[in-house]
Amino acid sequence: MSSIPTPMGSKLNALRWDGQPGHYEVYYLSLTDRRSGCGVWIRYTMVAPADGRQATASLWLMAMEPDGNVAPIGRKSTWPADALRARAEPFELRIADAVLTQRGASGAFEDVAWSLSWEPDGRPAEHVHPLLRRARVAKTVLVLPQPDLAISGTVRWGERSLELDGARGGQAHLWGSKHASRWAWVHCNDLETVQGERRTGDYVDGVSVFVPRLGRELGPNTPVVGRIGGEEFRSTNPVRVNANPSTFALTSWDFEARDGTRKLAVDVDASRETLVGVTYTDPDGELAYCYNSEVASLRCRAYQRDKAEPSGWRLVETLVAPGRAHFEYAQRERVPGLALQVT
Predict the structure, then answer these.
(1) Band of the pLDDT at 8, cuts 50, 70, 90?
(2) Are 207 and 219 contacting, i.e. CB atoms less than 8 angstroms apart?
(3) Which of 285, 222, 229, 217 is nearest to 258 (CA)?
(4) For a FRET experiment, which of 32, 101, 195, 309 has its CA 20 to 30 Å from that of 7?
């Protein structure tokens, strides 16, 4: 078990912005509906430019169909930061008329709308080790206040209306002064065995980043958190994060992560046709181009240290999530030939 304490999710959701320039903050909800196969990604964000210009707050909604035959959609609407209001306890975030709480999310703009509810997940996770947080080494901090949610309600985009009843998803929060130079991210909490037995409560969430330091790029650094077989998994120690093997590209990511005597080996694949392209703007004005799919596929092999095995590791089980993993790839240059739904 991890020795790192896990604060309540509502505390991890508290707004960090103090009104000063040079800060960005993001709350996002990602989900996949088993019945329709559709994926949805909702973001509540703010950016305070480093040069002191007007801070802004935005709402985003992206959605994609499972087969890629219908182009994914992306919408974003932006207001002055005066439209952003937050309360820490009990947590509530508002941008214009849209709301995010520990128990649900709602909002509407242009031709999209959402009204969602869930029971809170009381077992949050943090990707950035407390040592790095205290040293202020990380330029972005990622936390997972609600890793495992069963989401019900309605999401609408254009003429499409999606009714959800227990769709699996998660809610995250990140903040900082600058994004990494390139990264991959995955979340999945709709896992099953290869025999088709659902593993409700289990999840995997990880990110792998390259960061610029002193004129060169360092990485990948790959923190991974999760819950496998009902047991919490934390691979966030600074030494381990640097050692975790990781290889990612536009539509795939292979990585390993260790937590004590346990190891996860994870493969993620996303269809190019399902990627929704969006642009992130750092407080210093630099852009990052991100390509995201909420209908990716994942295979997770869980191992236990075993000296009797030639490799030193015994395969305990294999979990899969065909079309139900959430994946993002990002870099500082636009990918040629791929549309950007949000700029």
Answers:
(1) low
(2) no
(3) 222
(4) 32
What are the sequence ranges of the domains in the chain?
9-331
CATH architecture observed for domain 9-331: Beta Barrel (2.40)
152 burial via Cβ count (<10 Å: 0-12, 13-18, 19+) = middle
Q: pLDDT tens digits for 74-105?
A: 999 999 999 999 999 999 999 999 999 999 99
- Comparing CA positions, the residue from 330, 316, 36, 105 lying closest to residue 202 is 316
Distance CA 278, CA 16 (A): 24
Question: 52-82 pLDDT, tens per residue?
Answer: 999 999 999 999 999 888 999 999 999 999 9
Contact 277, 335 (CB under 8 A): yes
Give the tokens for residue 77. Answer: 């609407």
**Per-residue pLDDT, 68:** 83
